[in-house]
TrEMBL record:
One of its GO terms (molecular function) is efflux transmembrane transporter activity. This is Secretion system type I outer membrane efflux pump lipoprotein NodT. Residues 1-19 form the signal peptide. GO terms for cellular component: plasma membrane. InterPro entries: MdtP/NodT-like, OMP_efflux. SUPFAM superfamilies: Outer membrane efflux proteins (OEP). It is found in: Cell membrane. The gene is nodT. It is a lipid-anchor. It comes from the Bacteria. Coiled coil: none annotated.
Length: 505
C-alpha cells in the first residue's frame, strides 16, 4: 500500500513538473511596412478585405491571365511531373518523420530480450564458495534468461517539447521551401515559353527579311542586265542575303534549346515536346496591371514565410539548449529473470527486476552548455535579421517589377512606331533604287535599320511579358491550391515487420 502511494505521488509530481518549459516562447517579429507599394501610382490607403480577396483570386492562377491554353497546360503538367518539386515533397515527408521520431521521446522506450546457453566462470578467482584449485568447483552452468528493459525520460523542463516544436517549425519551413520552388518553377517555365514564342517571331522576321533581301538581289541583277547596275551592287546584295540567312540559324538553335528546357521542367525527356512547341503561335496577351496591390499581399511570398518559420525553429532550439542546463529525470525499468532450467525460469526465485527514478544534473563541463545557449541565441537573432532582410528584398523585387512594367509600356510603343517607320523607309528606298534615284547603299542601310527595329520591338514584347511574370513571382503568386504530391516508395512496414502491426515502433 505504501509503495502504491509512493508511486502515485511520484507520478503526480512528474506531471506537475512536466508543465514547466524553459526557454523563450516564439513571438513573431513585427516589422513596420508601408500600406501600399510606391510604384502602384495610387494613393496610399489601407487595403480592404475585398481588395485583398480580389487580388489573391487574380494571383492564384496568374498564368491563365495570358490567355494561352498551351501555357496553361504546360503549367499543369509541370506541377504534376517536375522532379525537383517531387524531391521537395519528399523532404517534407522526411522532416515530418524526423519530427515524429523526436516526439517518440515522450513515451517509454521498451525492448524485450531472450537468450540462453552455457557459461563458464574462472576457477582461479578467490570468490567464496569457490576457491582457486578446488576440485569441487563447478565453473560451468547453463542459463536461460528473458525480460523487458524500459526507460522513460520525464520531460520536466521541456527539452523534448522544444525539440519537437523546432522540428514542427522545420516541417513548416520545408513546406514554404517547396512553395518557393514551385513559384520559381512556374516563373522559369513561363519565361521560357515567352522566349520560345518571341524567338519564333524573330525567325518570322528574319524569314521576311530574307525574302526582301532576295527581292533586292533580283532587282540588282535585273538593273545590271539593263546596264544600270554594276557587279559591286550585285555582290553587296548577295552578301546581304547571305547575312540574313546566317542570322536566322542561331534563332533555330535557340528554339530547340528552349523546347528542351521546357520538356525537362515538365519531367520529360528533351525532344518529347519538340514537334508540338516548334509550331509557331501568336504571342500570349499581356495581362492588365492588377487592379489593387496592397502591400499585405507580399505576405504570400514563400521565401518570407520560410524565413519566419526558420526564426521560429531557432527560437525553439534556444529552449533545447537551456533545458540541457537543468536536471534530467529518467525512469529505468528492468525485468530480467535468470535460471538454469526452463521450469525454473518462471519461479519466484528466478525473478529479477528494478524500478528506479534516476536524476542527473550537469555540474562542470567547462562552459560547453552555456556556450551552446549563447550559440542558439545568436542563431535565433541571425534568423530574425534574415527574416527582416528577406522582407526588404521582397519589397525591392516588387517595386522593381512594377517600375519595369510601367516603363516598358512606353518603351514598347516607341519601338513599335520605330519599326513601322523603318519598314516604310525601306520600302521607299527600294522603289527609289529601282527608279535609279538612290544608290544601293541607301537600300542596305534602310533594310538593316528595319531589321534591327523589328528585332528590338520583338524583344520589347518579350520584356513586357516577362515583366508580368516577374511581378506575379515577386508577389509570391501561384503556389496556393497546389497540393503536396506523395511519391512514397511502395514499402509497407506491415509487410517488413509483423511486430509493427501490434506495436507502435
Amino acid at each position: 500500500m505504501k509503495g502504491r502511494r509512493r508511486l502515485g505521488l511520484f507520478l503526480a509530481t512528474s506531471m506537475l513538473l512536466s508543465a514547466c518549459t524553459v526557454g523563450p516562447n516564439y513571438q513573431p517579429d513585427r516589422m513596420k511596412v508601408p500600406a501600399a507599394f510606391k510604384e502602384t501610382e495610387e494613393e496610399e490607403h489601407p487595403a480592404t478585405p475585398e481588395e485583398i480577396e480580389r487580388t489573391n483570386k487574380e494571383m492564384t492562377e496568374w498564368w491563365s491571365l495570358f490567355k494561352d491554353p498551351i501555357l496553361t497546360r504546360l503549367v499543369e503538367d509541370a506541377i504534376k511531373g517536375n522532379y525537383d518539386l517531387q524531391i521537395a515533397g519528399q523532404r517534407i515527408l522526411a522532416e515530418r518523420a524526423i519530427r515524429d521520431r523526436s516526439a517518440a521521446q515522450w513515451y517509454p522506450q521498451m525492448d524485450a530480450n531472450m537468450g540462453g546457453g552455457d557459461v563458464r566462470y574462472s576457477i582461479n578467482i578467490d570468490n567464496w564458495p569457490l576457491r582457486p584449485g578446488n576440485a569441487a568447483n563447478r565453473p560451468e552452468a547453463s542459463m536461460l534468461t528473458y525480460g523487458v528493459m524500459a526507460s522513460w525520460e520525464l520531460d520536466m523542463f521541456g527539452r523534448i517539447r522544444r525539440d519537437v516544436e523546432a522540428h514542427e517549425h522545420q516541417v513548416e519551413a520545408n513546406i514554404e521551401g517547396r512553395r518557393a520552388l514551385l513559384m520559381g518553377l512556374l516563373s522559369e517555365l513561363a519565361s521560357d515559353y515567352m522566349l520560345l514564342r518571341v524567338t519564333q517571331l524573330q525567325i518570322k522576321i528574319a524569314t521576311d527579311n530574307i525574302r526582301v533581301a532576295k527581292d533586292a538581289l533580283d532587282l540588282t541583277n535585273k538593273l545590271y542586265l539593263e546596264g544600270v547596275g554594276n557587279t559591286l551592287q550585285i555582290a553587296q546584295a548577295q552578301a546581304e542575303m547571305d547575312a540574313q540567312i546566317a542570322a536566322r540559324e542561331p534563332l533555330k538553335t535557340r528554339v530547340s534549346q528552349v523546347t528542351h528546357a521546357i520538356a525537362v521542367l515538365l519531367g520529360k525527356m528533351p525532344g518529347e515536346l519538340e514537334e508540338e512547341l516548334k509550331i509557331p503561335r501568336p504571342l500570349p496577351i499581356v495581362p492588365e496591371f492588377p487592379a489593387t496591390l496592397p502591400s499585405i499581399v507580399i505576405a504570400n511570398r514563400p521565401d518570407i514565410r520560410m524565413a519566419e518559420r526558420q526564426y521560429a525553429v531557432a527560437t525553439a532550439q534556444i529552449g533545447v539548449a537551456v533545458a540541457n542546463l537543468y536536471p534530467h529525470f529518467v525512469v529505468p525499468l528492468t525485468f530480467n529473470p535468470n535460471a538454469s532450467a526452463m521450469y525454473q525460469a518462471f519461479q519466484a526465485n528466478a525473478m529479477s527486476w528494478q524500478f528506479l527514478l534516476m536524476a542527473s544534473m550537469p555540474l562542470m563541463h567547462g562552459g560547453k552548455m552555456t556556450a551552446e545557449v549563447r550559440a542558439a541565441q545568436a542563431a535565433a537573432e541571425a534568423a530574425r535579421l534574415t527574416y527582416r532582410q528577406t522582407v526588404l528584398q521582397g519589397f525591392k523585387e516588387v517595386e522593381d517589377a512594377m517600375a519595369a512594367w510601367h516603363d516598358d509600356i512606353e518603351y514598347a510603343e516607341q519601338l513599335h512606331k520605330a519599326a513601322e517607320d523603318s519598314a516604310t523607309a525601306s520600302e521607299r528606298a527600294r522603289k527609289l533604287y529601282g527608279a535609279g534615284l538612290v544608290g544601293f547603299l541607301e537600300v542596305l542601310t534602310t533594310e538593316r535599320t528595319t531589321l534591327n527595329a523589328q528585332n528590338m520591338e520583338a524583344l520589347a514584347k518579350l520584356e513586357r511579358l516577362r515583366d508580368a511574370v516577374n511581378l506575379y513571382t515577386a508577389l509570391g503568386a501561384g503556389w496556393k491550391g497546389v497540393a503536396l504530391t506523395n511519391t512514397t516508395l511502395p514499402v509497407s512496414l506491415e509487410t517488413q515487420n509483423f511486430l509493427a502491426r501490434a506495436f507502435k515502433q
